[in-house]
Write a structure and sequence with these properties.
The chain has 6 helices and 15 strands. The protein is an alpha+beta fold and 276 residues long. The protein has a single domain, classed as Creatinase/methionine aminopeptidase superfamily (Creatine Amidinohydrolase, Alpha-Beta Complex). The strands form 4 sheets. A 5-stranded antiparallel sheet has the order 8-7-9-14-15, covered by helices on one side.
Length: 276
């Protein structure tokens, strides 16, 4: 398979992607500080938007045709694309928050999952927190593999191997990661599982959003009547973590992490290098 040269950004373009990545990270930091039982998902949407605007950026989700919010907020059995609204979060909920920012025509995209405390049901909280931890760590395994991979689809191998080593989890196959740059969703596809094709060559200028979506039950999903929200068929809980990552001449840099991914990658023996 031949991939277009335009798949790879120039050094100058990579530098322009740092600011929208940090604006995206700031929005998720703000949500993380505010999320609690008793708040609505629309509250979180407003908080994320304020953080993005404070960085001089704009929410890029609002540029998606037919979507009118800053974040996607997906609760419990909802995997991705949940629409913020009046839903009040409850103790023990697991909430995936996906956010993105655009600045000077360049995009950032990231997601985190949060499990709300519930002293009355500690076993539910523990199960859901483990699910979130497994999903997050599979993301870091994928990012670490990107740092050493010859071809992109090695990332999916690393993600899948880690998830399956941790227990009987389902990995969504209908929804995957993507390239990112001038548009939030670009080529190439980024799989969270093994595929036969090698994918494009990993070399300087490649920028991808890696985003494993993992469930406690089976991977089958359906789209709710709102036309956006993706939920599990069996009603089991889901988790979603995502980072936008750039490959450059000196290494890799996680654009949507304040430290470039240093804390997440250190246990895996990878040191991210800032984009010069």
């Amino acid at each position: 398979m031949v991939f277009r040269r335009s798949l790879y950004k120039s050094p100058a373009q990579l530098r322009l992607m740092v600011a929208p990545g940090l604006a995206t990270a700031a929005s998720l930091d703000a949500v993380q500080s505010a999320i609690a039982a008793g708040r609505s998902t629309l509250d979180l949407d407003s908080i994320a938007e304020q953080a993005i605007v404070a960085r001089g950026a704009r929410p890029n989700f609002k540029l998606e045709q037919g979507y009118h919010h800053t974040i996607c907020a997906s609760v419990n059995d909802e995997v991705v694309h949940g629409i913020p609204g009046g839903r009040i979060l409850q103790p023990g909920d697991i909430v995936s928050v996906d956010s993105g920012a655009i600045l000077e025509g360049w995009n950032g995209d990231a997601a985190r999952s949060f499990v709300l405390p519930d002293p009355a049901h500690p076993e539910v909280v523990a199960q859901r927190q483990t699910l979130s931890n497994v999903t997050e760590q599979s993301l870091w395994r994928g990012i670490a593999r990107l740092a050493t991979a010859a071809h992109l689809n090695e990332v999916g191998e690393a993600v899948e191997d880690y998830i399956l080593s941790q227990g009987d989890y389902g990995i969504l196959t209908d929804y995957i990661g993507h390239g990112i740059g001038r548009r939030m969703h670009e080529e190439p596809p980024v799989f969270n599982y093994r595929v036969r094709a090698k994918g494009p060559e990993v070399r300087p200028g490649l920028v991808v959003a890696i985003e494993p979506m993992v469930v406690l039950g089976g991977p089958d999903t359906y789209v709710k009547d709102d036309g956006w929200t993706v939920a599990t068929e069996d009603g089991k809980a889901a988790a979603h973590w995502e980072h936008s990552v750039a490959v450059h001449k000196d290494g890799i840099w996680v654009l949507t992490a304040d430290d470039g991914g240093a804390a997440g990658l250190a246990p895996l023996g990878i040191t991210p290098v800032p984009i010069a």
